[in-house]
Every structure is written in structure tokens, then in C-alpha cells.
Amino acid sequence: MTHDTAALMQKLGAQAREAAAAMRMADTRAKNRALQNAATILRRDMDEILAANALDIRAAEANRLDAALVDRLLLNGDRVEAMAEGLEQIAALADPIGAIDELRYRPSGIQVGHMRVPLGVIGIIYESRPNVTADAAGLCLKSGNAAILRGGSEAIHSNRAIAACMRRALVDAGLPQDAVQLIDATDRAWVGELLRSDDYVDVIIPRGGRSLIERVAAESRVPVIKHLDGICHVYIDAAADADKAVAIAVNAKAHRYGVCNAMETLLVHERKAARVLPEISRQLAEKGVEIRGCEQTCALLVDEAHVRPASEEDWATEYLAPILAVRVVDGLQTAMDHIARYGSGHTDAIVTEDYHAGQLFLREVDSSSVMWNASTRFADGFEYGLGAEIGISTDRLHVRGPVGLEGLTTQKWIVLGNGEVRQ
Amino acid sequence: MTHDTAALMQKLGAQAREAAAAMRMADTRAKNRALQNAATILRRDMDEILAANALDIRAAEANRLDAALVDRLLLNGDRVEAMAEGLEQIAALADPIGAIDELRYRPSGIQVGHMRVPLGVIGIIYESRPNVTADAAGLCLKSGNAAILRGGSEAIHSNRAIAACMRRALVDAGLPQDAVQLIDATDRAWVGELLRSDDYVDVIIPRGGRSLIERVAAESRVPVIKHLDGICHVYIDAAADADKAVAIAVNAKAHRYGVCNAMETLLVHERKAARVLPEISRQLAEKGVEIRGCEQTCALLVDEAHVRPASEEDWATEYLAPILAVRVVDGLQTAMDHIARYGSGHTDAIVTEDYHAGQLFLREVDSSSVMWNASTRFADGFEYGLGAEIGISTDRLHVRGPVGLEGLTTQKWIVLGNGEVRQ
Prior knowledge:
homodimer, 423 residues, alpha/beta, Aldehyde Dehydrogenase, Chain A, domain 1, 2 domains, 14 helices, globular
């Protein structure tokens, strides 16, 4: 079995390499046509996709998977339509490939610049949401890459149906169907095999929970673009505008709970705490948010039923839930030290009207997004203008923060000469 | 011993992390002063450095190391002066850190842009040349990083003396001396320990021969920026200007032999071969270059003493020597297929006056540098205008081709708002 898996992976890999060579040269019109075809086919074959999804749902229920997982797995007319619209949006984005930047003459007479090119073969490992099959394939396609998709085993029928639509759409546009390949097996050995395929795969992007991502990061021989925790902070400075501070804190925590750019810890300057914390606490209580506060926070919000003392562990927890840790600090440096110690380098914000404090925070806080007077919830590919997002990277190399089409590309140097030789 | 190594590595790593936090915030003036101080101290302490180097040379001769290695190890007044000048050149470069690019308003009202920031802690693993200690430390310093240096054991006395100069120069500029740390031990276990230090080190840059780099790539848990082979090609198209073709081919091969951007294989269109190959052969013969030709090449250059038949292995060999493989091809596509099959993705050039052929070659050839009518020898950080070079990356992610200061940095997103919240 292991031998078979390895041989099959090599076959998939070789097919992906060949498709990647064609995709690298594919023109913008053909790539856009493939994306539009895919949207059309998804809508046309909706009944078949929903029938395939019903098989997955029935199996999930038989296996007593929990309700949240079944909901993530579920497709319906609206969700298939959203996939189709997502592909049309990707078609409408500018093509990053072939763009030449900063072509400049050098004293030797040569012109030197950069051309943006695809990464090559991208492996995507994801969990139960079947829409990732369309989204990830669409982004890889537009950026001129070949994709090898490995979805959750509980979504295998849905993923198979969606991948078939993507492959037909490629062929109809004159592009190789193997630019999108689904690993059509539920055996977990395949993940290990994909992670060892450094001869065929240029980068792996895992999308899912922490345990998946840690496994991928630990085992992969292929470079990984990954997202770990989002322990995001908002620091309300002594010089904060109180209205902005309250609005940002409430939005950053309570706009959505299960997202990586939600605030998990609020830091408040001791000179501002009495002015803003009671109002923030009141608004969060209305929304059913529990507060875990430091000693000063608890003293200030005494007798409030939703407030409890924080433990050391709270500062290091990504709740992804209606819970907020709150700490009163004696100044900007203590706030930045707290973020450096407990933060995850995802997104952190300061609220202040003070020029020096804001500038220092922007420079010193070493996170993928650093914000001044804005809600952490803005850390998102669409809000940043990328037009699409395959994930948010908490890595430092290659790409950091929200990853759009450009993160799926690299650059090569180009040199234009007129017969120049090195002296 | 292994336990000790691990504990000491953790100590070095923690010191580097702390120094990196300070270097990240260091202003341009302090960093430049440290570089200038280092140049001054290297010149002032030249006698001590040369005395330390003499110990290494004596040990190398006692161990009967080969003459080429002893030459790489040797320092003299000129070589120390060159190190000092190199540091002054780095001081004169623009500081990449803190630069904000493309700060743009979004429809939500926030401004979104990128700020360039250091990578953090950079591990450099190198072999016998002691000047790397100054060069690599200088580039890491200017780009706001902390460096952990692991030089060749045969250069330990020289490296220790040079690193001491760099550390004194940092302190004199008010910066932490631990921004430059030398692993002051010759035990090979240290390399493994450094490669496992993913908690403390953000990237490893190996500089040296293929076996070192392969070991680092295979073992490292830290991301690696690496350089493998340079099997560079020049393709002389049917529409090439013959004079340019001859000049470029001779320069690409014979300007220097032991460098990664030297041409190793010449591909010539069959309609141009009779026009250019005899002259190229004549000029290369004068320089003592041996030709290993395909059948058509040998037929064309019959009776020439420096011409032999090529074997399959020749197409895949980085000679780094006065040897050139030559193949006559039936057209552009065959040339590009040859490059895709045997090339190493380093640097490849076409010589042609034909617009379509040149454009196609630029787009399709997937190498870190692709050139049109210029010698492959231009693939170099100084020639490209980077002002300095820590190496040439044949990786695809993060940085590709010549790596200067910018390759030692990353970006974070910055968001400036006025109290905006997500709707």
C-alpha cells in the first residue's frame, strides 16, 4: 500500500509538473476563460454536486460527527453559487504573471528588472469545507500554477464533484486538466506522501486547525506557507480618543468570534482605564462576552457578572469565542512587551492620538499586520485590496499576512542587453 | 557533550533574539557608525588579525590541507583592507528598514501599506574564507538582523579575531555586541544544533560547496536560503548577431571559470553553427578551454585538438573549469527543452535579434536570471545594482537570484485608521 501510494504520488507529481509548465505560459485570456467556464459548470452541474455532498453528509451523520463540522461540510444552492461567484471574481482580477517591474539601466549598459512568474506546483491540504476545492484551485489557476488538492476525507464526494468541474473547465479553455488534481483517496498516508514530494511540489499550503498545521510544518520537506495562532491585541493608549477606543475594542472582539483576526486580549493604559473600560464592558456584556481581567480590571468592573479574574494562561490563549482577556498596563512599553511575549505575530493595534506613541508602536511591534486606530478585523485579503485570499501567513519568509495571488508567485531577474560582456 | 552543545546553543539563541529586538529598532546612523567603526578597528588591529590567521595557516599546513584551501584561508594586508572597504560600502548603502511602500486608501477609509522590517536572527554557515565573517556580519547588521556565524573549523582563530572587531564596533556605536555572535567551537555537532534552532533562528544561509549545502537543506528545521548548482546556458539563435554571439559566448565561459554564473553549456542553432562555432572555438582554444561537443559540433570542428565528443553526463555537469559542452540544436524549442531538462535554474541567456524568439525565451525559461543578448557573468548583486551580495539563491520562495540587503528583510502590513471598524 505504501509503495502504491508513493508510485501514485509520483505520477500525480509528474503530471502536475507538466501541467505547471503549460500554465506558466498560459495567456490571461485562457486562464480567465477557464475560471468563467468553471463558474458556469458549477451552476449547471449543481444537482450532481449537491447529490455528491448528500453522500458526505449522510456518512458524517452516520459517523456522528459534530454539528459544527457537518455545517462546514454542507453545500446548498447558495453555497455553490458563492463558489461560482468567487471564481468570477478571481477572473476579474489583474493577472500578476509576466509583469515586469523596475527595469533599469545599469552602468554596464544592461537593463535589469524583475518578471513575476508562478511558483510552479502548489499542494493544498485542507479540512472539511468543500468550497476550498474551488477557491484554492481558482487562485492557483489564475496565478499560473498547478494545484494538487488534498481535502478532508469526510468531504471526498463533494471535492471529487467540484474538482471534476474545474478540470472540465480547464480543458474547455484549452488548458491542461492536470493543472487541478485532487488526491482521490481518503488514506492518511497520502498527506505524508505529499509532504515528501519535494521533487514535484514547490510549496505546501495547509488550511485548517492547529493540529493539521503543526503536523504539516513538522513533517514537510517542501516549503510551507502557514498560519498558526491569531492572538491579536488592541492597546488603548493614555492619549487614545475614548470613542474610537470603545468602537475599535468592541468591533475587534465581537464582530465575529471564530476568526483569526479577532482581538483576544485588550490592553488599557492605567490613565485611560476608568474612562473606557466600563463602557467597553457594558457593550460586550450585552453581546454575551465574558471578560477575564487582571486585578485592576476586576477592581474597576467589580460586581459585574460577566467578569472573572484572568490566569496566566489567558494571556496566551486564542479563544476564538466570546471571551476577552483584559489587562491594565502602566504604559506603552509594558503593552509592547506584553505583545512580544504573548502575541502570535498576527495582528496588533494601538489606539492613540499621540504621534510618537503611534509611530513607535508601528515600528516596534513585530506582527504581520500592525494597526493604528483601526480594528484588527481589517486584517483580511479583501479589506487590504488583494481581491482574494488563500490564507493569512504568520511566517516571516516569502509572504506575510493576507496571501492573495501575488503570494502564489515569485520573481525572476531579467536582463536585456545589446551584446554586453563583463569587463 | 551533546547536552552542553544544546544548552550553549540555547544561550546563544536567546542572546541573539534579544539583540535582534534592539537591532530592529536601531536607527540608520547607529548602524552605519557600527560599520564604520568595524572598518577602523579591522585596520587598527590588523597585526592581531594576521597573527591569528597565521595560527590557522600553520595548522592547515600541518594537516596537509591542499594549496587552494590554504589560499582561501590566507589573510594579508590587502585582504583585510578589502574587508574594511566592504564594510564601508555597506555603510554607504541606503537603509532598507522602515521603508513604507504603496500606502493606499481603501474604500473602508483605512490606509494600507507595507513596511520593510528585518528577518530577525540569521544563521550563516560557511567554510574556509575568513572574510565572510566580516561581510556576512556587515550585511546582517545593516539590515537590522542579528547574526549567528558558524565558520569553517580551519579558520577558527581568524574568525574569532574578526568577530571580536565586529562586536567591539557594535558596542562603540551603542548597539548590542550579541548582534554578531561567532560559534566559537570546532565541534561539528554545532552545525546540527544550529539547524535545529527554529525557536531562535529565522533563516539559515549556507555558503560553501555542494555537500555542505545539501546537508543543511536536508537537516534544517529552520528555513534555508540556498544556492545549489549553476549550470548556465547560452543559446545562440538562428537570428543572432554573430559578433555579439561570439563575444558573449567567450565572455560567459572564459571571463572566470570557478564561478557559478559561468556558462557550462553552449547551445547553437544549426543554421548559425558554421558561422559562429569555428570563431568561438578558436578564441576558447587560445584560452586553453576544452570543448566537449555533440556529433554535429565535432563534425564542424574536426581535427581540433581541444575538441572531444560529449557524453550524456556532460550536459548535467557544472565544470567550474575551462571546459565547455557544446550542442547544435534544430531550433529555439529544442534549446529551451534542453535548458529545462539539464539546467539548474540559475542563469540562462539567448542571443538573438528576433523579437518573438527573445520574448518567448524570457517568458518560458524558468531560471533565477534570464538574459537576452548579455553575458551570464552579469548575474551578480553588484552588477544588478544591489550594492552588496550575500549569495545567489536558486530557491523559488522568498528571494531568487542575487541576494542583497533586501533579501535579508521581510515586510509587515501597516494600517492607519481614524477609528474605523469592520462593517
